Amino acid sequence: MRPRAPASPTDRLVLRRLGIDTYRDFVAYLHRESPVCRAEGFEAQARVEVRYGDRHIIATLHTTSGSVLGVHEAGLSEAAWRELGAVEGGSISVHHAAVLDSLSDLRAKVYGKILAPGQWRGIIEDVAAGHYSDLELAALVTACAGEGINVDETVALTRAMVEVGERLDWGTRPVVDKHSVGGLPGNRTTLLVVPIVAEAGLTIPKTSSRAITSPAGTADTMETLAPVTLSLEQIRRVVERERGCIVWGDNARLSPADDFLIRVEGPLDFDSDGQLAASILSKKIAAGSTHVLIDMPVGPTAKIRSLQGAQHLTQRLRTVGAALGLHVSVDVADGAQPVGRGIGPALEARDVLAVLRGEPGAPPDLRARALRLAGRILEFSPTFAAGTGERAAAEILDSGRAWRRFQAICEAQGGMREPPRAPLHSVVTADAAGVCLEINNRHIAQLAKLAGAPRIPAAGVELHVRLGDAVDKDQPLFTIHAEAPGELAYALRYLDAPRPIVSVGVR
Amino acid sequence: MRPRAPASPTDRLVLRRLGIDTYRDFVAYLHRESPVCRAEGFEAQARVEVRYGDRHIIATLHTTSGSVLGVHEAGLSEAAWRELGAVEGGSISVHHAAVLDSLSDLRAKVYGKILAPGQWRGIIEDVAAGHYSDLELAALVTACAGEGINVDETVALTRAMVEVGERLDWGTRPVVDKHSVGGLPGNRTTLLVVPIVAEAGLTIPKTSSRAITSPAGTADTMETLAPVTLSLEQIRRVVERERGCIVWGDNARLSPADDFLIRVEGPLDFDSDGQLAASILSKKIAAGSTHVLIDMPVGPTAKIRSLQGAQHLTQRLRTVGAALGLHVSVDVADGAQPVGRGIGPALEARDVLAVLRGEPGAPPDLRARALRLAGRILEFSPTFAAGTGERAAAEILDSGRAWRRFQAICEAQGGMREPPRAPLHSVVTADAAGVCLEINNRHIAQLAKLAGAPRIPAAGVELHVRLGDAVDKDQPLFTIHAEAPGELAYALRYLDAPRPIVSVGVR
């Protein structure tokens, strides 16, 4: 016989907005002497369920002493506050979080077991609901790294990621898309490809990410030209009107689990072919695409460093795509140096505008890459015979029709604007004459980030030379753009260490 | 030519104690409009270096808005505050943390590479210095889980863990030790083995852990009887006087990296033979031990579930110990049910006292286990011939010499005290007559934790039956002990779900 549980002590706490930003981590703050802490036996780092009205989240507990919170008050990290739609003075209850069943499957994966589709589904449901702690997300990403998941698991993982989120259906075929695996600064072809392809009559509902570890994501760059934070319904209206869009994907809850995984992938900087494939393809399938072209730059300082690595990832993408009814083509491209001149949201947007407007100084490499990719995408449609896509793309660009379509897309997304300019500049020149031998993608990206990109849209680096260019002594190599003196100083201090950024020498 | 970096903006911030407890996680709080955040381009979750006087730590940044902090103020989590020895109103500087070189080796391990000893040393140095974030620690633990590290790597990892911490040398041989791999509630043989072995003339400097995921660690149980938080110098004095001690290991900075790994191992609940071996053996070697006996309970709901698993771990422990000059013996024991009656620090201490004092109701299983282990340890010394140890141990216990030695050890550690009693009790009885068929170690441990153990030393569960006992209807099966009504209620609610705790039925 079991004694009856006595009535639970009152467990309501009054919300106080502390304004603590933990990025995406859900944290609940309770006074350590709070009746709830005492009754539930809570200690710092406990996983707790926070209920507010009909919403609930699982959060990590940080306890307080002193005067930050009263014993009947509770605080939330800003991410948790937003997720719950909380208001100052509102009332929450806090309980022990139930143990997640999917964690035993995660543990099995960590120990090297192969998981069944249902197990992946369970894990991804909990991830998408925000129920995994950062530690648990880190364990999941680590367990999948390298050769951690096989092709069948990647298919199951991708399908689970699609199924737990929203999904678009355009009622037409083909619905095309592109994606760059990233790692190449300035590679902003999306802003050219989308208006060209849409103008040619194809549907291209492009969702993009913000920068995770890079100085600019496509969404960051586009945001200097037009709003990108659109609801799913707004995206639908833009695409129905203009056949294309360039929006921020996270807001649409297409493959929402991916948005949580990114929270730890950035800081950890791990990758795996399996997880990368699931991440890319789940977003595309959820967006209703039938054909996708993957832009895969390969180079010694790009994300993919060898042709062998590119082939392995290509194989994984094609196999997983095929299993899920998505046609995947891959464009392996030279990733030896940044694309265009600007690195940073506004500087990259200026390169894009120059190409769209056909300005004489427009970066030819950005134009050429965009036309090649757009051409391949056009050939997904029976309207464009093999070998004719790139020329058709060039005609659309050169006629000004792509530029007009781009402006129309910007207007549909909420209105076009001019990218900002940074007030502070610092020019770095060549110490001696020679030939430009190396432009290190990673270091130039880091320099742009130290200057403030992508947080400061106008910040970044402007390159004045390309690989193989002859350079005179004192000729400008690149210019750092910054908004605050401290940020400019920080970028300049990065130049003090002996590391290659733009190297000039004798071949 | 590179432009000179302008003078850095003032980067001093005034410390305000917020009193936020994040367990062991180092967090720095800065106002998002602080000049330092603006100049350095900090965002929430950035890894930052915090300097205070001649001390420094690496912390995770949480930014604040609102009135919690002024723009020229900074806060620290309590763990960070203690680590820096900070005072209210003190002055700190905050900078970007340099990238840790060892993270590229961690990444290689995540991708399945085998690391060289120097790489392990680099990783462990950074871990012991507190430089790894929780995410990075989680990745390290995950990468080592299952078959993640081989024997050579385990040796290198263990050696690195010893080398980065303090190390004791007793100038004598043998120096003996014991360790339980855990998972069996109530298994508090250490408090019996140490006084018996010390009384027999052997040196046994026992450092123990607090509970990580269990309702009581040996240090928690001992703390209800005597102080356990001793400095290395205090430990030395106790052992020189009494030949034995039972202290909390973390305070001594023996294998300090392990103390950081535990921070994530608890929440993640992963284990690997390699990491478990490194964790156990590094503490023993650092404590100056030459011979160690490992108590390895095996049972369906114990930590080690099969004899095969026990053999694999035994092999790893012996091989790694041998490579590092430590003799390792393993005692594989029945782990089918908890040991003794009490589960929870004070309840377990009462079982120990009953055995030491030879009380009639003393749990015979706890006594028998302790004597077997003590006997095997005595035989590490040439003074005790093979097969004579257990009888010698029984004589020391039955003569009352072990009880006197235990009291002397408690006095040397700072004074003996009586374990507390909980004010609230709830008795669970049998619904029908039958035989006790199962006592689930995991569920009974969880129940004791929900009742408040180990945070509330008097809380826990007292078992009234053993496997195979005949049970009448309404006969008491176990009693829950709690301090607060809320905690008792929480434990009782755990009984509502259909899960085995103590099962009575027909065989």
Description of the molecule:
- The structure is a homodimer of 507-residue chains.
- Chain A is α/β, with parallel strands linked by helices.
- In chain A, the strands form five sheets. In chain A, strands 1-6-3-5-4-7 form a six-stranded mixed barrel. In chain A, strands 13-16-18-14 form a four-stranded antiparallel beta sheet. In chain A, strands 8-11-12 form a three-stranded parallel beta sheet, with helices on both faces.
- The first copy, chain A, has helices at 35-40, 78-84, 102-110, 117-128, 134-144, 151-163, 190-199, 218-223, 232-242, 256-268, 273-286, 307-323, 345-356, 364-378, 389-398, 401-413, 441-450, 485-494, and strands spanning 12-15, 20-21, 27-31, 47-52, 55-64, 73-76, 91-96, 176-180, 204-208, 244-248, 291-298, 327-334, 342-343, 424-429, 434-439, 460-463, 470-471, 476-482, 502-505.
- Chain A folds into three domains: 12-96, Barwin-like endoglucanases (Beta Barrel), CATH 2.40.40.20; 176-254 and 279-413, Nucleoside phosphorylase/phosphoribosyltransferase catalytic domain (Pyrimidine Nucleoside Phosphorylase, Chain A, domain 2, 3-Layer(aba) Sandwich); 424-505, Aldehyde Oxidoreductase, domain 3.
- The relative contact order of chain A is 0.10.
- At the A-B interface, strand 2, helix 1, strand 5, helix 3 and helix 5 of A face strand 2, helix 1, strand 5, helix 5 and helix 10 of B.
